[in-house]
Amino acid sequence: MEFSSRARQRHARLAGDRREQYPHSLQFYLEPPTESISLVEFESFAIDRLRLLKVVENLGVSHVRTSDTYKTKLEAELRKLKFPYRALAEDDYEARRKDHISHFILRLAYCQSEDLRRWFLQQEMDLFRYRFNELTESLMQKFLEHVNLSFEAIGEDLKNQLANELSSSTPGFTLPKVKEQMFYKVGLADAVDLFRARRVFIKDGFAYVPFKEIDVIVLNNYRTKLSKALALTARSLPSIQSDERLQPLLNHLSHSYVGPDYSVQNNTGKISLEQIDALSVKSFPLCMRQLHRALRESHHLRHGGRMQYGLFLKGIGLTLEQALEFWKKEFIRGKVDADKFDKGYAYSIRHNYGKEGKRTDYTPYSCMKIIMSNPPSQGDYHGCPFRHSDPELLKQKLQSYKIPPSGIAQVLELVKGMHYQLACQKYFELTHDVDDIGFSLNHPNQYFTESQKLLNGGREPKKEFSNSGNFQQKNNSQESINSSSTLTSSNEKADTELEGLEAYFTED
Ligand code: SF4
């Protein structure tokens, strides 16, 4: 690629600026970005970071965080998504910029509820831990100085004086090892985690922390800063929510998933109504199995359930005619007569298929949407059982589905750690008798498709998705936000610049 001399100068200036702005590949993300960015960049940075954090979540549950597999897979993902992946790389300023901006965009999207904040914090912490531990000792030192966390290393005399105490209070540290390692004198407040776990020597209000444990201190510090920053950003919610440019984008980020759009069907009409009972047992995720069972038992579902289940059925291939027949047959077995069904319920089913009202072709709900919005109340059956059921009830349900006790324990452990989609993946593995499902679950219809592929020996026709790998862009909510106001990289707003993002991160 050739540059004209002006372009070359501009390029050099830009590189210089970036070098100054991002002296390290690792960041504490203390200063929000001040530059204007286009909607296209905003969207693609945000999607990539979301992908990265999903991978961090998946890897964190499937592998030990210090294992080689964990590190290799995470590095591969960082490389693929063009985030800084090697501490020593000197020319990754664009990657550092992307890292910086994308973190702040997701911070805006994920400050909006307690659940979102907790998830974001956990994944960012894991990502940071990996990156910090990948630094060489000298780069760690540089980074610590950069973020004003330079701790005082104790001198040899003091170390020799305290050698016995250091060895007996620091697990894994024999006397010769104490002699080899550098120890830092750290204020107690910074070493709370080590102190609680009895992994550090304490004297006169100071913890004596070996170099290899310094990551705990740094992570603690980062966690405090980030959770405070998230709480602060949450205070800007009223202004974020009234910003017409941002609110639809951010809502979609926190409720969307990064995967195919299940509204595009090439299996429409391939499923008969008679198959649904059997499919609900074999191939429906727990949320849909629960809805199907409730419908069969009470011959009715409330609005939230009809929306969630109706769109899922549409996604697995039910035609409008089949859907009308399916719902009507069931409802008239309960308290609703045929006339009332035609007047009161048929409209909303046609509406879901884009035949009424705004004629939006509604897409089935993703896991994120089901987990994050419209929680069920008494008498509702929608939602995600892993997120919304009482653990004891969930346990009973899994027992009734003949899941072995050890499997139930694993699922409940994941639920306890708030890894709801991973709990669902585990449920898939247990009900399909596979060790590793080999995909990252994001959508109930994906669960169905993958289950059918597996059960039919891979014969399930692979759907072609027109916007594979892109956001679920169509509006899922009944209230309907015009899709032109949602994330898109190809509309007329593509070149629009977003300015003034930093205003949301400042104190007032
Ligand atoms: Fe349904 Fe997704 Fe929850 Fe599984 S994780 S039960 S597919 S919402």
UniProtKB/TrEMBL annotation:
<dbReference type="GO" id="GO:0005658">
    <property type="term" value="C:alpha DNA polymerase:primase complex"/>
</dbReference>
<feature type="compositionally biased region" description="Acidic residues">
    <location>
        <begin position="497"/>
        <end position="508"/>
    </location>
</feature>
<feature type="binding site">
    <location>
        <position position="384"/>
    </location>
    <ligand>
        <name>[4Fe-4S] cluster</name>
    </ligand>
</feature>
<dbReference type="InterPro" id="IPR058560">
    <property type="entry name" value="DNA_primase_C"/>
</dbReference>
<dbReference type="Pfam" id="PF26466">
    <property type="entry name" value="DNA_primase_lrg_N"/>
</dbReference>
<keyword id="KW-0004">4Fe-4S</keyword>
<dbReference type="GO" id="GO:0051539">
    <property type="term" value="F:4 iron, 4 sulfur cluster binding"/>
</dbReference>
<comment type="similarity">
    <text>Belongs to the eukaryotic-type primase large subunit family.</text>
</comment>
<keyword id="KW-0411">Iron-sulfur</keyword>
<keyword id="KW-0408">Iron</keyword>
<dbReference type="GO" id="GO:0046872">
    <property type="term" value="F:metal ion binding"/>
</dbReference>
<protein>
    <recommendedName>
        <fullName>DNA primase large subunit</fullName>
    </recommendedName>
</protein>
<dbReference type="InterPro" id="IPR016558">
    <property type="entry name" value="DNA_primase_lsu_euk"/>
</dbReference>
<feature type="binding site">
    <location>
        <position position="367"/>
    </location>
    <ligand>
        <name>[4Fe-4S] cluster</name>
    </ligand>
</feature>
<feature type="binding site">
    <location>
        <position position="287"/>
    </location>
    <ligand>
        <name>[4Fe-4S] cluster</name>
    </ligand>
</feature>
<dbReference type="InterPro" id="IPR007238">
    <property type="entry name" value="DNA_primase_lsu_euk/arc"/>
</dbReference>
<dbReference type="GO" id="GO:0006269">
    <property type="term" value="P:DNA replication, synthesis of primer"/>
</dbReference>
<feature type="region of interest" description="Disordered">
    <location>
        <begin position="457"/>
        <end position="508"/>
    </location>
</feature>
<dbReference type="GO" id="GO:0006270">
    <property type="term" value="P:DNA replication initiation"/>
</dbReference>
<comment type="subunit">
    <text>Heterodimer of a catalytic subunit PRIM1 and a regulatory subunit PRIM2, also known as the DNA primase complex. Interacts via (C-terminus) with PRIM1. Component of the alpha DNA polymerase complex (also known as the alpha DNA polymerase-primase complex) consisting of four subunits: the catalytic subunit POLA1, the regulatory subunit POLA2, and the primase complex subunits PRIM1 and PRIM2 respectively. Within the complex, POLA1 directly interacts with PRIM2.</text>
</comment>
<keyword id="KW-0235">DNA replication</keyword>
<dbReference type="GO" id="GO:0003677">
    <property type="term" value="F:DNA binding"/>
</dbReference>
<keyword id="KW-0639">Primosome</keyword>
<keyword id="KW-0479">Metal-binding</keyword>
<feature type="binding site">
    <location>
        <position position="424"/>
    </location>
    <ligand>
        <name>[4Fe-4S] cluster</name>
    </ligand>
</feature>
<dbReference type="Pfam" id="PF04104">
    <property type="entry name" value="DNA_primase_lrg"/>
</dbReference>
<feature type="compositionally biased region" description="Low complexity">
    <location>
        <begin position="473"/>
        <end position="491"/>
    </location>
</feature>
<feature type="domain" description="DNA primase large subunit C-terminal">
    <location>
        <begin position="278"/>
        <end position="448"/>
    </location>
</feature>
<keyword id="KW-0238">DNA-binding</keyword>
